[in-house]
Request: fold
Amino acid sequence: MAKTVLITGGTGLVGMALVPALLQQGYQLILLTRSRQSHSLPYATHPAVRYSYWNPSSAELDTDVLTKADHIVHLAGANVADKRWTAARKKEIASSRVLSGRLLVDRLKEITHRPLSFVGASAIGWYGADTKDHPAPFVENDPPDASFLGETCRQWEESTAPLTALGIRRVILRIGIVLSRKGGALPEFERPLRFGIAPILGSGKQMISWIQLQDLVTMIIFSLEQSTLQGVYNATSPRPVSQYSLMKALARQRKQFFIPVPVPAFFLKVLMGEMSIEVLKSTTVSASKIEQCGFCFQYDTIEKALPIC
Ligand SMILES: NC(=O)c1ccc[n+]([C@@H]2O[C@H](COP(=O)([O-])OP(=O)(O)OC[C@H]3O[C@@H](n4cnc5c(N)ncnc54)[C@H](OP(=O)(O)O)[C@@H]3O)[C@@H](O)[C@H]2O)c1
Reply:
């Protein structure tokens, strides 16, 4: 019988790439959404897709859908990059992740059914910046950074930790910058290139640990299906690039001449506020752990990744 995957945050960038990939492999899907208009959402009329309303902030969730889940993929959370980090937005970024994780745990405690696996999103915001004191790539055992994102990731991961004691195999993917032209950071980097301009943020030397969207989708499905996987894994390609190299690769792929335009760090701080720390931060993250578990990146270099984004 076809297995059922319950997905939270399935209407976002990652979810909307994951859904067709799971359908192609014959899974049935239940998508939890805060939308009351789910009939107008993508795949709403697909016979193997069902939407179910939930709202983590008011603890609304139809527990019955959990009894049908063979696997859970938890992607939900307020977007980190689309609004300025005011105190209210920071609260929403953190609480949307923590409350949704806790709600899933609390409701699973109320029932006897146990999904085979839980795959939860986290982010490489867990890690601090590359420094002389930390020259090696960050690995999963490194402690969380004492920043807003580091603390958010810590609470986010912690919110679903009790699942292990419930006997559910739990995998956490610390996701890097997802590369796709359908959303996220890449269209923002690429837009100025249309005018022949490549903004170089700060020194441009900061390392970006990225993952191509399709590789992330494959890794999520790999995590669901490989019963030997358990715990935290970095979801970043094995070859991070500097921001300058990313702009160069983008221009090369577009067969385009470009003028590098330095954007000073102080200007970014005025423009973006606290969020500027994240675009200026250099974070080199290791992909070794997931590779040692047998995961093969199809798009392991930026040159392979960009054309299919
Ligand atoms: N994209 C990246 O570069 C990247 C990098 C690192 C980590 N991640 C993490 O991976 C996950 C998926 O990323 P994504 O790019 O697909 O995110 P996304 O496009 O922003 O979508 C996230 C989904 O979460 C739900 N959501 C939004 N605000 C919420 C709130 N306040 N409470 C509960 N649910 C809320 C929404 O679904 P409904 O409106 O249907 O409820 C939305 O479609 C996210 O948790 C993200 O932080 C992404």
